Each structure stands twice: as structure tokens, then as C-alpha cells.
């Protein structure tokens, strides 16, 4: 399988200017002498220090630039150590390769079957039958996510929503991936069949065509594209490019995990200790950029059997895998750093699905990472979709289907499909789409609850399985009310300013300010409202009130919530 380690360099603003210009620098000279080249990924804008950190802990840098160093793999670790010595370098670290979930049964130190190690059947198919009856995840809750109900609602097939999948390769010529497919739009696809099967299976789950044969995706009317991490982009570069191609309410799916600190970042055939990629600073910042644009990011939790609440993830790693910059904190804590992504774990399908039993329905599968970070779960076994060929095979990959796609890799596309279908319903109803924070909130507030399994209690959190019917009911009701937020006094011929914070960003709020002092003869006040998007989740309103008279005026600020 094609895998690439990445050397990431983070520079302060002054060094970034030198690297981008024509002036030589120690940084570029060191890289060039090692036979490498610098590839600028992005510049992170200034951010206020998270409140939990406080000024003493240090704010995020005023501005930092992220680079990927393309150099021979055997030189990456030495390069990282040399670059760390430069005063203008915030950090330089080697990231383990990002990989899909592909585990062979014989390599697993447990009794579970392998993950995505299927081989195509040798028989040549005559005609592709209808496999939608085998897609139990489309069915009503709690078995599935009730996608079939969502299809009965205007927009419920994802119309108007754009999705970009980030991984390594795809088979966009597949017979069931013809409609609404935009293909690969950046990066260079790996020629490795494991990557290609994996990407094809992922796209099929939410983007499979609606026709009379094969499978049907959860949101087949959504526009689906892909970006490969290969070709020099790496994971953070791919996320950043995807964000720039999408808008508020659209969706990025990150179908990757990588070796974490549990086994000293070593690539392993059993992928034990592999974790969600937002732990690395460049991936975190790229995801945060997308979320700040209003793009929903769905991220696989990883198949490393890890408790992501473990304190091992609080530790800044040693060279050459670190250290990370001084502003880094463990994002799995979501305080003080929260990427804003929706993180997905793998749950068991209903017992008896395809004649197999993986434990109680919606219980955590043994390979799935878990923890407070994880927002929702999808089927982690027995997913019927495009690719691999163990359900329908032959020599033509365009006709391949599988009955056993697995992992947090099969779980995450189910959550993406649920989000995109519900976004389509909201758009069709003339409502604003879910923001990233709103989508996370809705997934946690609705759905079919996680169940216990022997040795894997529900306290090992992977969250609820989405229920699209519940999500739609939760989001569509319109509630209205009015009230007085504050009162005050504005001195004669003066201007006062008030602010009111922590209003949910998805509420429609109208502000009116009225005088309560009676002074007939002409206008008494004027006001204007300024708005701060304090976070993805909250809005602060700044209300400036001017007294137009030569006597003090009492005022009250009234709000009207028109809907949410």
C-alpha cells in the first residue's frame, strides 16, 4: 500500500515572508541541501488565546505559516531536528503516514474478522442485481438511519449539498457512481488498489446512484467530489483545498487515521494505536479553517482500539515526531482547542445482518476508538456498497460491490449521508443549513442510543446512531418569542453601547430599542446593531443607542426571535 510520511514545518510570520520571496534563508538552504523542497500549505491567521488558556499560557501566534517538506523519506527525521534549531521555526515534526482502514484477519491480535481485506469473487457477473435490500443502514431506526423516510421529504436526498471526500484514490468510472459525481479535483490518486477500493466504497455509501441496480447512496442527489492526499498535498493541504471549494453547510469527509503515540508512532499491520488526525497541529488548523468557513467536517475516529480520553494524548511528542508548537494543546479534550469536527466511531449492526453477529446492535466494535470526543456512530461492519468485489466481482472493477465494508471508515460516510440529507431538507424548506456546531449538537441530541456489549460498555463512548427522521423533526419546528433583554439610561445628547452575548448562531433575532421616558415633540433615540460571530456556535450583538434630546432618556432593548 502506498504510504507517505510528512515533514511539517511551522514558521513565524517573518520567516514565512522570506520563504515566499526571492531572498535566501537558512530554512530553504537546509532543505535544498538535503535534496528537498518547501511546499507552502497555508498561513493561519491570528487567533485570540482560548479563554481556558489565559494570557499566561500564551496566545496562538500572531501569524504562522505551514509548509510540507518534500524530501527523501530517510532524511526527514534529520531534517526535522536541524530545522527545529532555527529561531524562526515554531516547530518541525515528522507525521506518520495517513492510511485507510485495511487490516488482514491473520494480522489481528483478536478473534474478529479482518477489516477491508476482501478479495473479488472470480465469477463474471451477467447483470448487476438490485442490492438495496441488503443496505440495512438505510432502513428505519434503530436498525438504520431512516434515509428512506428522508427521501420522501423535499431535498431529503441531499439536493444542493456538496461533499468532498479526502483520502487516496477512487473508481469514479464505476457503473453506480455516474450521477452527481465531480471526480477527483486535486491531488494525485494513488495507484494502489487498497486505496481505490476504500475510496470507491466510501463514495458509494452516500453518493451511489439512484437506479434499478446495485446500491443507492444515502444522499444520491448531493454533488460528490474527491481530493487525494498524494501528489504533495498531504492531509492538511487536502483539507484546506477542500474548504476553499465549499461553502457554509457543505461537508468534508476525512477518511484517514494515523499511528499515534501509544506505539511510538510506528506503522503497524494491525493499526493498533491509530488515532484521529486532528491531533497533529497542521491538520487541526486546516480543519479549524474549514469549520470557521461554515463547512461541516466529519472525521473518522480511527480503528486503533484507543481511549481518546487517555492522558497520553496530552503530552507534546518528542523529536522527530514533535515537539509541537507551544500553543498546541490536546484537541481531543475540546478545551482549550476544539477543531469543530464531528468525530465518528464504529458501532455494531443489528445481529443477524448478512447472517453474522458482531455483538449487540449499536455497541462499540472492538477496533473502534472511543471517548468523550466522539460525537456519533455508524455501521462499522456489514456495509453494502461499491468496490472490493466480494459481493459481485469479476475482472471489471466498475462492476464490483461489497457486502462487508468495515471500520470507522464505513461508519463515517453514514453520518455524512445523514447530515447531507438533512441539509437538503432544510434548504428545500427555505431554512438556513446547519452550521458545524449545530450539526454536532443535533447528532448528540437525537438518534438511537449506544448499547452495552460484554467488555465494551456504553461508557466507552461512540455516540448515537443518527436518526434522520428525528433530526428533521428537531430542526424544522419554528419557535418564536419576544422579550426585553436589558434596560438602561442614555444621558442627554450622548451615545451608549451595550452588548449581549452567547446567542445561538442559528436563531433569527431582530432587535428594537424604544424609549420608556415620555418626551413628545420628535424622535428621542436612534440605534444600530452590530454583530460579532464569537464562535461557530454563538453570536454577540452590540447595540449602540444615541439620545437625540437634551434630557436623559430611559430605554429598553427588545428582542424578537423569529425562528430557530
Would you write up a description of this structure?
With 564 residues, the chain is α/β, with parallel strands linked by helices. The chain has 3 domains: 90 residues, Ribosomal protein S6/Translation elongation factor EF1B (Alpha-Beta Plaits); 330 residues, Rossmann fold (3-Layer(aba) Sandwich); 83 residues, Jelly Rolls, CATH 2.60.120. The protein contains 11 helices and 22 strands. The protein is globular.
Can you identify the CATH superfamily of the largest domain? Peptidase S8/S53 domain
- What oligomeric assembly is this protein in? single chain
Shape: globular
- Total beta strand runs: 22
Residues in helices, as a percent range: 10-25%
The pLDDT mean sits at 92
* Uncertain ranges: 15-24, 48-59, 104-111
Task: Name the beta content range.
Answer: 15-25%
Secondary-structure class: alpha/beta
Radius of gyration: 26 Å
Tell me the strand order in the biggest sheet. Answer: 7-8-6-9-12-13-14
CATH topology of the largest domain: Rossmann fold
**Largest sheet descriptor:** 7 strands, parallel
Known CATH architecture of the largest domain:
3-Layer(aba) Sandwich
Amino acid at each position: 500500500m502506498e504510504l507517505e510520511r510528512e515533514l511539517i514545518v511551522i514558521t513565524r510570520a517573518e520567516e514565512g515572508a522570506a520563504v515566499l520571496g526571492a531572498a535566501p534563508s537558512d530554512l530553504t538552504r537546509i532543505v535544498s541541501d538535503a535534496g528537498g523542497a518547501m511546499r507552502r500549505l497555508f498561513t493561519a491567521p491570528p487567533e485570540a488565546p482560548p479563554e481556558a488558556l489565559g494570557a499566561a499560557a500564551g496566545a496562538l501566534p500572531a501569524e504562522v505559516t505551514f509548509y510540507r517538506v518534500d524530501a527523501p523519506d530517510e532524511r526527514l527525521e534529520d531534517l526535522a531536528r536541524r530545522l527545529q534549531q532555527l529561531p524562526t521555526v515554531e516547530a518541525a515534526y515528522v507525521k506518520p503516514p495517513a492510511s485507510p482502514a485495511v487490516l488482514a484477519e491473520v494480522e489481528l491480535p483478536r478473534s474478529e474478522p479482518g477489516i477491508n481485506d476482501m478479495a473479488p469473487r472470480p465469477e463474471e457477473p451477467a447483470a448487476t442485481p438490485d442490492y438495496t435490500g441488503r443496505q440495512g443502514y438505510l432502513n428505519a431506526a434503530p436498525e438504520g438511519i431512516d434515509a428512506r423516510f428522508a427521501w420522501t421529504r423535499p431535498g431529503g436526498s441531499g439536493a444542493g449539498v456538496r461533499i468532498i471526500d479526502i483520502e487516496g484514490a477512487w473508481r469514479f468510472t464505476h457503473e453506480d457512481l455516474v450521477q452527481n459525481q465531480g471526480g477527483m479535483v486535486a491531488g494525485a490518486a494513488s495507484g494502489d488498489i487498497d486505496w481505490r477500493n476504500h475510496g470507491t466504497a466510501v463514495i458509494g455509501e452516500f453518493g451511489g446512484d439512484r437506479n434499478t441496480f446495485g446500491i443507492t447512496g444515502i444522499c444520491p442527489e448531493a454533488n460528490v467530489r474527491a481530493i487525494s492526499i498524494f501528489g504533495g498535498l498531504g492531509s492538511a493541504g487536502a483539507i484546506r483545498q477542500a474548504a476553499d471549494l465549499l461553502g457554509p453547510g457543505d461537508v468534508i469527509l476525512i477518511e484517514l487515521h494515523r499511528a499515534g503515540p501509544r506505539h511510538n508512532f510506528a506503522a503497524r499491520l494491525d493499526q493498533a494505536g491509530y488515532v484521529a488526525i486532528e491531533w497533529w497541529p497542521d491538520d487541526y488548523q486546516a480543519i479549524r479553517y474549514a469549520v470557521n468557513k461554515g463547512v461541516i467536517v466529519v472525521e473518522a475516529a480511527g480503528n486503533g482500539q484507543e481511549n481518546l480520553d487517555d492522558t497520553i494524548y496530552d503530552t507534546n511528542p518528542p523529536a522527530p515526531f514533535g515537539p509541537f508548537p507551544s500553543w498546541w494543546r490536546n484537541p481531543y479534550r475540546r478545551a482549550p482547542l476544539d477543531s469543530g469536527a464531528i468525530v465518528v466511531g464504529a458501532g455494531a449492526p443489528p445481529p443477524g445482518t448478512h447472517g453474522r453477529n458482531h455483538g449487540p446492535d449499536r455497541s462499540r466494535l472492538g477496533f473502534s476508538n472511543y471517548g468523550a470526543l466522539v460525537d456519533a456512530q455508524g455501521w462499522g461492519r456489514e456495509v453494502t456498497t461499491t468496490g472490493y468485489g466480494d459481493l459481485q466481482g469479476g475482472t471489471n472493477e466498475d462492476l464490483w460491490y461489497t457486502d462487508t465494508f468495515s471500520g470507522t471508515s464505513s461508519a463515517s460516510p453514514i453520518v455524512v449521508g445523514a447530515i447531507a440529507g438533512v441539509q437538503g431538507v432544510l434548504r428545500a424548506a427555505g431554512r438556513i443549513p446547519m452550521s458545524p456546531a449545530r450539526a454536532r449538537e443535533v447528532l448528540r441530541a437525537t438518534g438511537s442510543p449506544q448499547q452495552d456489549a460484554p467488555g465494551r460498555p456504553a461508557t466507552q463512548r461512540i455516540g448515537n446512531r443518527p436518526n434522520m427522521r428525528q433530526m428533521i423533526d428537531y430542526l424544522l419546528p419554528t419557535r418564536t418569542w419576544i422579550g426585553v433583554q436589558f434596560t438602561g439610561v442614555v444621558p442627554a445628547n450622548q451615545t451608549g453601547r451595550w452588548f449581549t452575548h452567547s446567542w445561538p448562531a442559528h436563531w433569527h433575532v431582530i432587535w428594537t430599542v424604544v424609549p420608556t421616558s415620555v418626551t413628545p415633540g420628535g424622535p428621542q433615540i436612534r440605534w444600530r446593531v452590530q454583530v460579532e460571530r464569537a464562535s461557530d456556535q454563538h453570536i454577540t450583538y452590540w447595540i449602540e443607542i444615541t439620545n437625540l434630546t437634551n434630557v436623559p432618556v430611559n430605554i429598553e432593548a427588545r428582542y424578537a426571535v423569529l425562528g430557530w
